[in-house]
Amino acid sequence: MATMASRSPFSLMLVLLAPLPIMIAAVGWSHWTALVAVIVATLALTIAFGEPLWIPIYLIGAGLPAWWLGYVALLARGNEDGSFEWYPAGRLVMWCTVIGSVIVAIVMWNVRIDEQQFQNALKLALERMAREYGQSGPDFSRMDVKRTSELIMSFVPPLAAAIITMAYVMNAYLAGRIAMVSGRLKRPWPDLAALRFPRHMSSAFAVALLIWFMPGIAGMIGGIVSGAFIIAYALLGLAVLHDVTRPLGDRVFILSAVYLILFVFWPACVLLAVFGVSDSIFDFRKTATGAPPPAIT
């Protein structure tokens, strides 16, 4: 988190990885260890920068969400035969969407970008680009600055929520992998291709999409939640793709092509999200295997 002060090009990546040490401590040792790490990190940032503002920034942005994910990841329910039913991976992804939505909502509520100032800044940026490119560049003179700024401001919160959600999912994955390689992972590694979401999650996604079209703060909140859900269902779509291609001989080629497309053109994750939502309705994996899916209530 302290790298934000350096304004380095790599600072954003390091900020997104800030929850990783806390999650490693949680899944490799215990949630109590992770909680101590959160307290120590918060005090260290506060002392290093001499600014109490770091306490809520770190606690809300990285420390407490990472601790909570590590805590729920190790929850288990004992069965009569002595085995354990561990917290489902689908619910961990659900918590990542909640965390991503809450963090971005808090940031947007406190920032409150002035629309007129944003329009003026966009106009200056377009004029600077027009001077640099000259007549060989695109013609910005006919662009409706007001409409363009409204579109940008409407898509920034969902995009930010999608990035934060994906960052927390990746941190949880990396923390589990690191703990497993070191032999300290406290739970079995889940079958990620069998990822499933709670039944009510698709309904919540539909409601968020409807609210997105509302004006004002409600529309912004709906967009934030929708952006987080799009990433979650894109991950579900990937899980379904991994599962249904298992019997295919050219599975490696298909999956490599999908990941390459996502790397080159990341908006394609919207199509994966549609695939994931469709699986929640039609259950492609049950159709492919003939086996009933595990229930997540």
Can you give a write-up of this model?
The chain is an all-alpha fold and 297 residues long. It has 12 helices and 2 strands. Strands 1-2 form a two-stranded antiparallel sheet. α4 packs antiparallel against α5, α6 packs across α7 and α8 (201-212) packs across α9 (216-244). The radius of gyration is 22 Å and the shape is globular. The two termini are 36 Å apart.
CA-based shape: globular
The biggest sheet amounts to:
2 strands, antiparallel
Note poorly predicted spans. Answer: 289-297
In total, the number of strands is 2
Euclidean distance between termini CA atoms: 36 Å
Defining traits:
single chain; 297 residues; mainly alpha; two-stranded antiparallel ribbon; 12 helices; 2% strand
